[in-house]
Each structure stands twice: as structure tokens, then as C-alpha cells.
């Protein structure tokens, strides 16, 4: 039931071309992209679609999911960020990180993502995903607002969710020519895919948000049922437990 409540049906499409004759009509230019696929057992088992003993199919998120997401994100950004952030910011981060490492300080310094990127499309897979990525990148509430509102309005629509996030920025008329947008997606495998777009001109299409954008952001996102039903976040309430999956594998 919980999987059906969180995951929603949605879709999005784009026309991607390298034909120069379309340059005058394009709204985005792909600057850089990176794809990371982890291969450890923990990462593979972090998100699985499996069946229980009665044959009911469910999607299981394990306790290894946060660590797998962080590891995938780190590896991915090591490839992507040098392509899109200014050299002086990369150099500053290396110096500060080296100093922190030599002093054996526990707190790792954050790279300034906003030195080369103005907007962030964080995968709206859940509140914990948005919060975790936001903390890791040092993003503020205004940066995470499009992802939070997308999750609030449309739920988790898988890969299409990122375009709903971008659509929110368009509907709010926040995208200006010359600005850059970072898209971050996380998924089973465990995988992390990211890309950076350059906005070619000011955009303000209301798109799928047309019938509700004036209501967002709402005054509060506090869940009135959070205290009463907080037990659903406990590990043993997973739709299918890891022990069940292991047992099924041995019984085959």
C-alpha cells in the first residue's frame, strides 16, 4: 500500500537534437552529463522489486539506501563538477579539503555549487532523498522548493519527476537566459545520473502546473498524520524484508 501511495503515474518527453537549424527554437543546451553505476551487493540490494511468499510484487528500500545514494553521488560529481564549475572553485575546494584532512577535522568542507549553477532539479523520490541531497550540496530551502513541491503535488513519478521539477521553475518564471540547471537522478542498480543544462532564453511556460501553480508553495508542508503514523518509517515495516528475499532466493 505504501508503495502505491508514494509512487504515482506520470510522464514527460523532450526533443533532443544536434541539428544547428533548431538553435533558434531551443530553450536548453546540454552542457555536460555523467552516469554512475555501483556494483556492490549493498548498493544492488538498496532498491529491489521482489515478490513475497504469496507472489505479491513489492518494491523494497533497504537500510543501505542512504549510503548507496551518497556513494553514487560522490563518484558522479567527481566526473561532472570539473566540467561545469569554475577552476578557481575547484582549486579552493582542493586546498580547503587538504587542509581539513591534514588537521584531521571531522567535518568535510562543502564545494560551492552555486559558483557555476543557479538551479537544482533534485530527484523527488521522497522527503529523505531531497533532504539528504540538499544537505550534501549545501542547498537552501529556495533551491529545494521545486523538488519538494513536485513531490507534494505529483508524488514520485520516477524518471519523469525531474521534468516536473523543471516545469515548476518554468511556471514560476525563475529560468533566465544564460543560467545553468543541474539535474540529479537516483535509482535502482544503484545508479546516479546527472546533467547540466544551459538556459538559452527566458522561459515561462506554465505547462503541467498551469491549474495549481498559484497555490504553491503552500503555507505549510507539515503532515498532520506524521505523529500518529510515524511507525511506518521503521525498518521492519518494509513491504518485503531482506530476510524474506534471501529466503526466497535459497528456496528457488
From TrEMBL:
One of its GO terms (biological process) is fatty acid biosynthetic process. It catalyses: a very-long-chain acyl-CoA + malonyl-CoA + H(+) = a very-long-chain 3-oxoacyl-CoA + CO2 + CoA. GO terms for molecular function: fatty acid elongase activity. It comes from the Eukaryota. Its EC number is 2.3.1.199. GO terms for cellular component: membrane. Residues 115-198 form the Beta-ketoacyl-[acyl-carrier-protein] synthase III C-terminal domain. Pathway: Lipid metabolism; fatty acid biosynthesis. Gene3D superfamilies: 3.40.47.10. Residues 1-96 form the FAE domain. InterPro entries: 3-ktacl-CoA_syn, ACP_syn_III_C, FAE1_typ3_polyketide_synth, Thiolase-like. PANTHER family: 3-KETOACYL-COA SYNTHASE (PTHR31561). Belongs to the thiolase-like superfamily. Chalcone/stilbene synthases family. This is very-long-chain 3-oxoacyl-CoA synthase. It comes from Linum tenue.
Amino acid at each position: 500500500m505504501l508503495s502505491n501511495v508514494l509512487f504515482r503515474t506520470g510522464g514527460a518527453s523532450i526533443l533532443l537534437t544536434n541539428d544547428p537549424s533548431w538553435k533558434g527554437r531551443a530553450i536548453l543546451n546540454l552542457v555536460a552529463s555523467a552516469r554512475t553505476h555501483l556494483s556492490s551487493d549493498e548498493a544492488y540490494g538498496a532498491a529491489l522489486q521482489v515478490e513475497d511468499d504469496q507472489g505479491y510484487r513489492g518494491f523494497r528500500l533497504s537500510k543501505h539506501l542512504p549510503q548507496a545514494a551518497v556513494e553514487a553521488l560522490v563518484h558522479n560529481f567527481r566526473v561532472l563538477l570539473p566540467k561545469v564549475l569554475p577552476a578557481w572553485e575547484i582549486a579552493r575546494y582542493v586546498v580547503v579539503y587538504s587542509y581539513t584532512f591534514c588537521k584531521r577535522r571531522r567535518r568535510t568542507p562543502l564545494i560551492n555549487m552555486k559558483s557555476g549553477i543557479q538551479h537544482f532539479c533534485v530527484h523527488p523520490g521522497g522527503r529523505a532523498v531531497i533532504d539528504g541531497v540538499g544537505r550534501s550540496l549545501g542547498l537552501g530551502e529556495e533551491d529545494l522548493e521545486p523538488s519538494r513541491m513536485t513531490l507534494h503535488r505529483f508524488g514520485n513519478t520516477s524518471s519523469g519527476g525531474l521534468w516536473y521539477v523543471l516545469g515548476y521553475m518554468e511556471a514560476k518564471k525563475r529560468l533566465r537566459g544564460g543560467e545553468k540547471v543541474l539535474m540529479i537522478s537516483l535509482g535502482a542498480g544503484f545508479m546516479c545520473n546527472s546533467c547540466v543544462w544551459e538556459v538559452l532564453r527566458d522561459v515561462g511556460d506554465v505547462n503541467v502546473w498551469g491549474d495549481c501553480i498559484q497555490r504553491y508553495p503552500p503555507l505549510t508542508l507539515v503532515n498532520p498524520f506524521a505523529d500518529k503514523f510515524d511507525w511506518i518509517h521503521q525498518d521492519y515495516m518494509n513491504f518485503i524484508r531482506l530476510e524474506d528475499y534471501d529466503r526466497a532466493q535459497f528456496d528457488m
